[in-house]
Amino acid sequence: MALSRVCWARAALWGAAVTPGPYVTRKLQLARPRAGLAWGAPRYLFPRQLLIQHFWTPKQQIDFLDIYHALRKQSHPEILGYLERVIPLVSDAGLRWHMTELCTKIQHGTHPAIHDILALRECFSNHPLGMNQLHALQMKALSRAMLLTPYLPSFLLRHRLKTHTTVIHQLDRALAKLGIGHLTPQEVKSACYLRGLNSTHIAEERCRTWLGEWLQISCSLKEAELSLLLHNVVLLSINYTGSRR
User: Fold this and answer.
1) Fewer beta carbons within 10 Å, N or C terminal of the chain?
2) pLDDT value for 119
3) Position 38 in a domain
């Protein structure tokens, strides 16, 4: 049973990390020629939509993953702006201070420490940032950060985000049991990319360090706190050395 879970975890790493949601593919397909530059999708990149990842050349892999990351990175300012706006709604003064400090650090380009993020787990388990309390606009932005379509009713967006975050949480537990040291370099980079980091331009050891930080946060969270894991796609990746492209 344990071995099958590890195999499932590895299969999920390869599949989910390089396969965009329908939002990305359809958005690029429907874009008019004059809007092509805004999406950063030169015409020679059509193999990205016609061929599975197995047939991409090494250069295409880097180019395509850069494009997908650029798409999801567009949602980062909106997600961070929403966190800043809800600070006054946090009832606990200590949590308000921690949230303000975290947002300030990130806005100034600092990579947050693990304890900076875990200190806010209570904010993300209920009002105003619990999974069931997120507003529609924030769920749309988070969906884009996960390369999922934002063009769904609110209840479907919430259900989809819950489902994807729960799967990642389960993968994290499996990876923690397996140990990062047992992953190949490509598996490490795929795992990081799936969780929000543009690992294509970061050294393997730096990726392993980042993945270790992510797993430490994830494995500390309960199911009711998974909204923090969802936001961690942005919080932990946005200022990591080598990831700002």
Assistant:
1) N
2) 96
3) no
**What is the count of structural domains for the chain?**
1
User: Which position has the token pair 């706190």?
Assistant: 225
* 173 found inside a domain: yes
In a domain, 84, yes or no: yes
pLDDT of residue 194: 94
Domain range enclosing 73: 56-236
- Domain assignment present for residue 12? The answer is no
Looking at the chain, list the stretches that DSSP marks H as alpha helix, in order from N- to C-terminal side. Answer: 2-18, 22-30, 47-50, 58-73, 76-85, 93-107, 114-118, 136-145, 154-178, 185-194, 204-218, 226-235
Per-run averaged pLDDT (10 residues), the chain, 245 residues: 44 45 42 34 46 66 87 95 96 96 96 96 94 96 95 96 96 95 94 94 95 98 97 96 57
